[in-house]
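Let's do one together. I've listed all components of the complex below, 384 residues spread over four lines.
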Amino acid sequence: MVSVRNTRQDVVEAAGRLFAEKGYHGTSMRDLGRELGLLGSSLYAHVESKQDLLVHVVEEGARLFQASAAAALATVGAPGGQLRQLIAGHIGVVLDNRDVVRTYLNEARMLDAEHRSRVIAARDAYEQAFRQVIAAGVSDGSFRSDVDPKLHSIFTLSILNAIERWYRPEGRVGRDRLVDEVSDFALAALKR
Amino acid sequence: MVSVRNTRQDVVEAAGRLFAEKGYHGTSMRDLGRELGLLGSSLYAHVESKQDLLVHVVEEGARLFQASAAAALATVGAPGGQLRQLIAGHIGVVLDNRDVVRTYLNEARMLDAEHRSRVIAARDAYEQAFRQVIAAGVSDGSFRSDVDPKLHSIFTLSILNAIERWYRPEGRVGRDRLVDEVSDFALAALKR
DNA sequence: TCCTTACGAACGAACGTTCGTTTGTGATAG
DNA sequence: CTATCACAAACGAACGTTCGTTCGTAAGGA
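Okay, and this is what the predicted structure of the assembly comes out as:
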């Protein structure tokens, strides 16, 4: 029942891979066709345009992060635990969807103005989740009172978003260790 | 006596600006010409090739960071103070050379293999400066003993390298405040 | 039989780059 | 002073290639 032919999802996945590796403008439709064993022109049976492919990859990235944040916020517990959940979720998304995430983080600015502003809005909303949790911890006294929630969330997200640039799954740092290290680093600045 | 004509340095600067904004592959030689008020073909009076332009911008970025690290390491003082110097220097480089730094950070991977590996080596050497200072602080007891210098330097550099993505000089956070916030954040995880 | 998938030729536009020519400017010679 | 010269800077046409995309057609599974 396995189809020999390619499906739309195959094309989007391959696009994520190539966009992540060589950038949107560095990838041609013929490159992408070659990756799937077909001609560049054949891709148009599955997809409307090259820009359309970028839109789909980036929006999948946005969806993944949004779902992760929603799940973390749904957990009950102290702000410290919730922040740890946010961090663990983010790292899970990055490690399980490297190419989509790399494209989401690095190539979204190549989108046309309309789609790009939607992505920016999604990122703002995601950052809001971090800010909320930190602000809650400041309010209820579990975090230091002189913490700037906005700056702290930017710093934490900076660490998380950079992971795709250096982390190697086969290296000496396992996934759980990574979550612990990032969490401890981010929480150290919050400890009163 | 200011020249009305453009100089090689003008071209490299404009290239840094456009590469930072639209990416290397997203910038054409005709775009770059337009930026300077001339034709794309006219650029070849100043420059060997488009790739050549990228090489010069990226190598300038590498030089700036290397000089900053050397200056910070030359200061005497406790590891905590030296780390703060490294951070302040990095932030200075980023804020005073936004376009060069953005190109250095985001477009270096578009270089051919030879130049790219030189950039990677330069980045490794730069990260080494951070790692050394942290390791020294662990050794002399001014930092916690269970700190992993490599991970800590990666996290700190992640924060520093992300600054170009969100910081606005005209915003509510001034340069000195930014240096303090990043330093406090990075040092909190080192406090014993 | 229809519908999806893929082909492969072709399109016009844009790409990086080359080249012969023109232009402007500063130095030099009369 | 002015005429001449050299040279760098810029032009603009053109090159060969690649780009994203279109289209008519063929093949094959439901």
